[in-house]
Amino acid sequence: MIDDTLVTHPLYEKKQIDFIKGVAYQSAVLHRACVETAKELIITADQHLDEETADTHTVLTILTAKQMNPSIYCVAELISTQLKEQAISAGADAIILTKQVIGEALLSKHRTN
């Protein structure tokens, strides 16, 4: 887990999940996370940023990770659809669109009388 906003490991009881404080799209930070040998990377959107900036950081993280390890499987969360094509072009293998997932979840709970 890479996060620049946290001071300590949020899941310290989960020993199989390492924590690195840093900016995920920086190659030095991804190197510390051993992205060169990783099989999969899950990128979540930074909830502390506005949508466009968070999604831009996600695309940069995909691009950097794929440059370091072209075979890594990247699952990426985007808040909106604006940068979906860029995420695909950067090498995302799967994309989760947060607004779409939340909208579908809300609609599934809607009752019609």
CATH class: Alpha Beta
Oligomer: single chain
> What is the count of helical runs?
4
Q: Which stretches of 5+ consecutive residues score pLDDT under 50?
A: none
Helical amount: 25-40%
CATH superfamily (homologous) name:
NAD(P)-binding Rossmann-like Domain
Which properties best describe this structure?
single chain; about 110 residues; alpha/beta; Rossmann fold; two-stranded parallel sheet; 5 strands
Would you write up a description of this structure?
It is built from 4 helices and 5 strands; from the N terminus they run E-E-H-E-H-E-H-E-H. The chain has 113 residues and is of the alpha/beta class. It has a single domain, classed as Rossmann fold, CATH 3.40.50.720. A 3-stranded parallel sheet has the order 3-4-5. Strands 1-2 form a two-stranded parallel ribbon. The radius of gyration is 15 Å and the shape is globular. The mean pLDDT is 87.
